[in-house]
Amino acid sequence: MRNSRGYQDTLKGDKILSQWVIKSAPDHFQVRELISLKSIKKGMDYCWLWMEKENLSTLQAITVISSKLGIPRKYISWAGEKDRWALTGQYIAISRRALKERKLNLRGEQEFQVKIGEVNGKVKVKLIGWFAQPPKLQMIEGNEFKITARRRFYVEIPWRELSHNFKEALEALKSGALNYYDSQRFGSRGINHLIGYLMLSGLWREALWVFLAFPSLNETRKVRRFRRKIARIWDLRKGINRTEVKALEEILEKLPLEMDMEKSLLRAFLKTLDPKSSFKTFPQKIFKLILNALQSHYFNLELRRSLEKRLEIYRISRSILPPSESFLKSSSKPFSNQSDQLVELVKSLSLPQGLLNTDLYLPPSRDYHLKVIDSLPREIALPGIGTQLPMDFPKRELLNLKLMGSYRPSIVTPSNLDGEIRLCEDKLVEVKLSFQLPRGSYATILVKSILAML
């Protein structure tokens, strides 16, 4: 449970691996976007701002700014998505046209506070300057992280051994970490790749239902309650009738702020009752996020297959090693707490077996780690969407949106990696890490890789 201050109580943050917790307070996970402003062409088309947020996703923070300044969200640009339960900093831009129409003159620093469900969020924006173009993903050189992880101290593991393992892990990761996409890539509910698959399969009705009615423990109770209401009204096994349409219309205007995307999607659907056309209300950026999640899932599967081949080569078998040495799993478990109706849906659609498998394998020691990364292929393919599809995809046109295939490094090398481990007075082991990663790589994977070796 998150407390009234907007973050989780000690050791009730986001659990990673079996014992460790991160994000038990916002300042335990800090991210700063790195863009060289000197390389951006000067101009008067876009007003750039530095945005700092706390306990809000990037989209939620943009929505707050849009609401407070009275500027439609389509006039606000940003490059990358940042974690919700964290202190993050990134660049955003507002078009000159939007500011001129509303006669706004942004100066200095402004702060906005908002309560979403049980959580208090905060957004600060500070004027940076005027440029000829908005922030774009390719402008991001990387991200800077400061992360704190904690767990209880167990006397069975001597402190000297724990400290020694940490130093070895830190040195091992300086040579590189597995470049998995972590659970954040798949949305707060961990299902964006599933929605993308349903879209590409032409199952628009199912995709719409999952987007609207799929609950998650990562959401507030209020949001989960509304999703359950939608699921009870709209039974996918049957067609939708007038009574159900009327019931959904009554729910529509009651949806909370954090369900603004669901609200626009549901409103469009109730006008035409055509699931595919309702998705045309989606911003292009959201479509790309969903399809990128599907690409990312296939990358993770392929990286894991490559890793498992190496495990056989080096005879590192999870079945014969004791639990303390077995390869640790880190999974978002998106389907573990969902409704029976969704489970039936997943079964009835006969989805590919790998689609629901989100386990990631991490080496448990420095020696295993170094052997594995030295033998992995340098790059792994990201399949194209709409042009070059994996074999088990039905080929479908997706609102004329195509994502080209590319390659992603299987190993990422952090810059300026440093850290310390200490024993706190309240019998907590605390690990502090600071490092930089290139754009698109996940800090939580690097943190998990280090903690897996302790």
Q: What does this protein look like?
A:
The protein is an alpha+beta fold. Among the domains are: 36-139, Alpha-Beta Plaits, CATH 3.30.70; 188-299 and 314-359 and 390-397, no CATH class. The protein has 13 helices and 17 strands. The strands form four sheets. Strands 1, 2, 3, 4, 5, 6, 7, 8, 9, 16 and 17 form an eleven-stranded mixed beta sheet that branches. Strands 10-15 form a two-stranded antiparallel sheet. Strands 11-12 form a two-stranded antiparallel sheet. Helix 7 (242-252) packs antiparallel against helix 8. The two termini are 27 Å apart. Residues 1-13, 313-339 and 387-396 have low confidence and may be disordered.
Topology of helices and strands:
Elements: E1 14-16, E2 20-22, E3 29-34, E4 42-54, H1 58-69, E5 76-78, E6 87-95, H2 96-101, E7 109-116, E8 119-131, E9 142-152, H3 159-173, E10 177-178, H4 192-200, H5 204-213, H6 221-233, H7 242-252, H8 260-272, H9 275-278, H10 284-313, E11 328-330, H11 340-348, E12 360-362, H12 366-375, E13 379-382, E14 406-409, E15 411-412, E16 415-423, E17 428-438, H13 443-451
Parallel strand pairs: 3-6
Antiparallel strand pairs: 1-2, 2-9, 3-9, 4-6, 4-8, 5-6, 7-8, 9-17, 10-15, 11-12, 13-14, 16-17
Helix pairs in contact: 3-12, 3-13, 4-5, 4-10, 6-7, 7-8
